[in-house]
């Protein structure tokens, strides 16, 4: 049987691990969102033709 102090210590450690896990998950989520935003911008710039090309295409037609 664990003493009351051991039970309190165990509870504190579980709480601390939960906080650390939550903090790590938030940081990972933020990094993922930043990465996805960068990918989205890179893809958008690749897919969208420059404005100069669109004007030239209209004049040619």
Automatic annotation (TrEMBL):
Q: Which InterPro entries match?
A: PA3496-like (IPR058059)
Organism field: Pseudomonas syringae USA007
Name of the protein this chain belongs to: Transcriptional regulator
């Amino acid at each position: 049987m664990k003493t009351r102090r051991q039970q309190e210590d165990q509870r504190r450690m579980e709480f601390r691990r939960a906080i650390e896990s939550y903090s790590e998950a938030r940081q990972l989520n933020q990094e993922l969102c930043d990465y996805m935003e960068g990918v989205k911008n890179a893809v958008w710039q690749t897919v969208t033709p420059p404005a100069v090309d669109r004007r030239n295409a209209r004049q040619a037609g």
